[in-house]
Design goal:
Blueprint (H helix, E strand, L loop, with lengths): L1 H37 L14 E8 L4 E6 L5 E5 L3 E2 L2 H11 L6 E4 L15 E7 L4 E9 L5 E6 L5 E5 H7 L3 H4 L14 E6 L3 E7 L2 E6 L7 H13 L8 H13 L1 E10 L2 E10 L2 E6 L5 E4 L1 H7 L21 E6 L2 E8 L2 E4 L2 E2 L2 H12 L5 E3 L8 E7 L4 E10 L2 E6 L5 E4 L1 H12 L12
Antiparallel strand pairs: 1-2, 1-6, 2-3, 3-4, 5-9, 6-7, 7-8, 8-9, 10-11, 10-13, 11-12, 13-14, 14-15, 15-16, 17-18, 17-22, 18-19, 19-20, 21-25, 22-23, 23-24, 24-25
Helix pairs in contact: 5-7, 8-9
């Protein structure tokens, strides 16, 4: 009976505690809802001009104290606990939420007990320092009972607010979130040049009017698509900041034992960043000047760099591409053709030409592509083409000569010899001979 009485008493105490907790939570939820009802979302916790913020500090309970400083209009650098480039997108979101933080609701005008809100020992404290040296700090506490919001307050103020939960998540970032994960964290929209040096490849290229062109070696006319591929692979090459220490050590060992493939230097307005790539039996590994450690990089990037300069040569004989063209001069032995475009029409010797026949001839010029490059064998030219395009700004001169079963073509602005299939030359000759004047519509009676 004694044990039974003790059990009954314990059960009653437990029920009383459960009831107290239930009504406490109900009162807290009711209090939150009442505050939200009487103070609709739109209360301002802090108001800053994000362009004036020069420094951010994030202190997380049980985590690192992180200090970020502005080093450019949109660029930030982590200075503590280690020197790292910051993720511009993540920092931009933080600045947006602080300038101003006005999507809040007032919960308590003068909070006496901060523990109930998780603000006595906040989950995170985010400080913003302006150009004037003044610092304001936001304290981030527990989630509200509804789970839709979180408690927050401004350091030095007694007011407690609720803010959307996602704003707390945006502000309470750790080092892994805040660091830039790109192996080459540069502004690819303002990329000045890319320099590649390796056992097989020595190449420098840059953007001219939106088109990638080779700058070194000077006599190499480069394949734009292959250069664009390298740039795109560099743009998307990232590391895993959460990689376990064991994996980091393994990557460092594989990089150390790998065969050097290339050292790549990319330069934007802020200067160069460098990437060194090595190959192992398991793939490619790289080190970068942007951060410590070695990291695995996509095979597509390694393969794109593991080439010799010849593979970057442009195989198309003409750069005409999708340009309509302005003038074409074609000499084929005793035959000569002189075409000039005016508006949408092509003319020769004062005669308007049939549009389809001229476009077929231009198609064969555009499709002239090397099957490979030759080292020698060019004799006296049998054919000559001069193509003017880009509103007269680009003039391409090409001579062609028979060499055995194939033809060789040589541009006036380079030394490369393009080996061309004989059928491509015959097609060009045939379409040239088939050009004809446009039909003249019959006169109206």
């Amino acid at each position: 009976m004694k044990h039974m009485r003790q059990l009954i008493v314990a059960t009653a105490v437990l029920a009383a505690l459960a009831g107290t907790l239930y009504w406490s939570n109900r009162r807290k939820i009711a209090s939150d809802n009442a505050a939200l009802g009487s103070n609709p979302v739109g209360v301002k916790v802090i108001s800053l001009n994000q362009d004036d913020i020069s420094k951010l500090e994030v202190r997380k309970k049980g985590g690192d104290d992180i200090v970020l400083r502005r080093v450019g209009p949109t660029k930030w650098k982590i200075t503590s606990p280690q020197s790292l480039i910051a993720d511009e997108g993540v920092v931009s979101t933080m600045l947006y939420d602080l300038s101003p933080m006005d999507n809040a609701a007032l919960i308590d005008e003068k909070a006496a007990d901060l523990k109930q809100f998780g603000l006595a020992e906040p989950d995170a404290q985010v400080s913003a320092t302006g150009k004037d040296g003044k610092t304001q700090t936001v304290l981030l506490g527990d989630e509200t009972p509804t789970g839709e919001s979180a408690y927050a307050m401004l350091s030095g103020d007694s007011k407690v607010y609720s803010i959307p939960k996602n704003i707390k998540a945006n502000l309470a970032k750790g080092l892994t979130d805040l660091r830039d994960k790109r192996l080459l964290p540069i502004d690819f929209d303002k990329l000045a040049s890319v320099e590649i040096g390796g056992a097989k490849l020595h190449l420098t290229f840059g953007s001219d009017d939106g088109k990638w062109t080779v700058r070194s070696p000077a006599n190499l006319r480069g394949d734009t698509s292959k250069m664009e591929t390298i740039v795109e692979k560099l743009r998307t090459a990232t590391m895993d900041p959460g990689m376990p220490d064991a994996d980091k050590k393994k990557a460092a060992g594989l990089y150390a034992s790998g065969a050097p493939i290339a050292t790549l230097k990319a330069t934007d307005a802020d200067g160069p960043q460098e990437l060194q790539i090595r190959k192992t039996s398991g793939g490619y590994y790289a080190k970068t000047t942007a951060m410590d450690g070695a990291y695995k990089v996509p095979n597509e990037l390694g393969d794109a760099l593991n080439k010799d300069a010849e593979e970057f040569r442009e195989k198309r004989v003409f750069d005409l591409a999708d340009d309509a063209g302005d003038k074409v001069e074609f000499h084929d032995g005793q035959k000569a053709y002189y075409l000039t475009r005016s508006g949408e029409d092509w003319w020769e010797d004062g005669k308007k030409m049939d549009a389809l026949s001229v476009q077929e001839f231009l198609r064969t010029i555009r499709s002239l592509t090397a099957t490979k490059f030759a080292a020698s064998g060019f004799a006296s030219p049998e054919l000559a083409l001069v193509v003017t395009s880009k509103d007269g700004k680009r003039v391409e001169k090409v001579d062609m000569a028979k060499s055995g079963a194939v033809y060789l073509a040589k541009r006036a602005d380079g030394t490369a010899l393009f080996e061309l299939d004989a059928k491509a030359i015959e097609d060009m000759r045939k379409t040239a001979s088939e050009m004809k004047p446009a039909e003249v519509p019959p006169a109206k009676k």
